[in-house]
Amino acid sequence: MPIELPFSQACENNKAPILAILREVFDEPGRVLEIGTGTGQHAVHLAQAMPHLKWQPTDHPDAAELSRLRLDQAALSNTLPVIELDVGTPPWPIDSFRWAFSANTAHIMAWKEVEQMFHGIAERLTVGGAFCLYGPFNSQGQFSSDSNKQFDQHLRTRGSHMGIRDMDDLNTLASSVGLVLAKDATMPANNRMLVFRPSVD
Length: 201
Ligand SMILES: C[S@@+](CC[C@H](N)C(=O)[O-])C[C@H]1O[C@@H](n2cnc3c(N)ncnc32)[C@H](O)[C@@H]1O
Prior knowledge:
Blueprint: H1 9-25, E1 30-35, H2 41-49, E2 53-59, H3 64-74, E3 83-84, E4 97-103, H4 111-124, E5 125-135, E6 137-138, H5 146-158, E7 165-166, H6 167-176, E8 179-187, E9 191-198
Helix pairs in contact: 1-2
Bound molecules: S-adenosylmethionine (SAM).
S-adenosylmethionine (SAM) binds next to loops.
């Protein structure tokens, strides 16, 4: 019987716009750490379209098995086997990488874990690297749409630790770990792509 792969319609919709940005940012060969790979749709689409990259998919130990299904089936030459990575549990099982990408994770993780994600990435990002964080974000305490406001309410009923993060808080966090917001791209469906780079001073 064919294996039913995990599937997200949102990933189908956003993978092309995400690729358009990542193509510009991940412009040199290097390893990409993906945090919270989920269904694997982004990993497969993005790695296939950017053969100069070596894609390292990861997910929380509770979810990594799910991520493996699509990646194993795709068997791309530039994806590495999925590894378990809980950003809140040191040590991380990866030493360094030039690029990092994470989609729709900051509002699922507790804020403490978002802090740990930024810390872990900043510590391991090599010179000239970048961290691309995709998702819905607030700006100066304001929701960017009614649907994001409703989504935030939904998240908070699922778990009090979840919620849409504010760009101001993310920028403060980034600068505390030596990263700076280099690009803020508006994406379809009221999402954004935030590109952080190591600060030069
Ligand atoms: C909403 S899903 C997003 C999945 C995929 N990136 C996407 O855009 O569809 C959130 C992901 O964050 C992962 N996640 C949650 N907490 C995590 C943690 N502490 N460390 C690593 N990943 C975590 C979940 O396992 C899940 O894969």
